Amino acid sequence: MSFVFEELDFQHTPLGDISLRKRGEPRLGGKIVYEVKLGDEFLMSSLFTASEIALATLGLGALDAPELDVVVGGLGLGYTAVAALDNPAVCSLRVIEVMAPVIDWHRRGLVPLGAQLVADPRCTLMHADFFAVASAAGRGFDPAAPEARVHAVLLDIDHSPSHWLNPANRDFYTPQALARMAAKIHPGGVFALWSNDPPHAAVTDLLDGVFAASEAHVVPFPNFYTGGESSCTVYVARTAPA
């Protein structure tokens, strides 16, 4: 069995150097793994996608509207976006990503799900700062339709609400900023948030202070490196019904 390693792309960004690489994992029989690093920190891996998929299934599973307009904050390797598009009720999906190279990887087909996302007419990849767009007062997520609301916002950018990819992101996790985002969501809609940390009362208290209700879901998944099980958290908050 040969060991495979290839750096597919390396770019400078305002947040630091970002790289996409593909390698074989000898502990899994040479399985090809895609990984993203920002500086020296691993951001994501195609080995661990269960919680990214659960962000979409849990968030959208809380809705029963026949047609859904959805926003995803953070493109990553595309697993949350593809899981959202697997829901037949989704009629539009806007993925907001601050790092232009990540969008470029999908458009160039450098990542496994890129071609699928780019080819889906329901999907729009938007290069912007999700936090700036979400917390801006008086306009929605679509620059062409600033009054439009969405049914769900699925957020997977920071490691957790207290461990940020960019220190400036901390300003989003406040009642004021979350309330401005909630105003862009239809009554009875959903805000779902991914976190690498266990459920924390401070997060549910924050969400409950802005939304009508919230709950925390622990998402377990096998950890191939430890031989055991790891978990992440998906918070699902609901806006008040009409």
Describe this structure in words.
The chain is of the alpha/beta class. It has two domains: 5-44, no CATH class; 48-238, Vaccinia Virus protein VP39 (Rossmann fold, 3-Layer(aba) Sandwich). 23% of the residues lie in helices and 37% in strands. The protein contains seven helices and eleven strands. It has helices at 50-61, 79-85, 100-107, 114-119, 130-135, 175-182, 201-208; strands at 5-13, 16-25, 31-38, 41-45, 68-73, 90-97, 123-127, 150-155, 185-195, 213-223, 228-238. Strands 7-6-5-8-9-11-10 form a seven-stranded mixed sheet. The protein has a four-stranded antiparallel sheet with strand order 1-2-3-4, with helices on one face. Strand 8 (150-155), helix 6 (175-182) and strand 9 (185-195) form a beta-alpha-beta unit. The model has no long low-confidence stretch (mean pLDDT 95).
Shape verdict: globular
Distance between the termini: 59 Å
What integer value in Å does the Rg equal? 18 Å
Spell out the helices and strands N to C.
EEEEHEHEHHEHEHEHEE
CATH topology of the largest domain: Rossmann fold
Short description:
This protein has 242 residues and is an alpha/beta fold.
Q: Secondary-structure blueprint of this entry?
A:
Elements: E1 5-13, E2 16-25, E3 31-38, E4 41-45, H1 50-61, E5 68-73, H2 79-85, E6 90-97, H3 100-107, H4 114-119, E7 123-127, H5 130-135, E8 150-155, H6 175-182, E9 185-195, H7 201-208, E10 213-223, E11 228-238
Parallel strand pairs: 5-6, 5-8, 6-7, 8-9
Antiparallel strand pairs: 1-2, 2-3, 3-4, 9-11, 10-11
Helix pairs in contact: 1-2
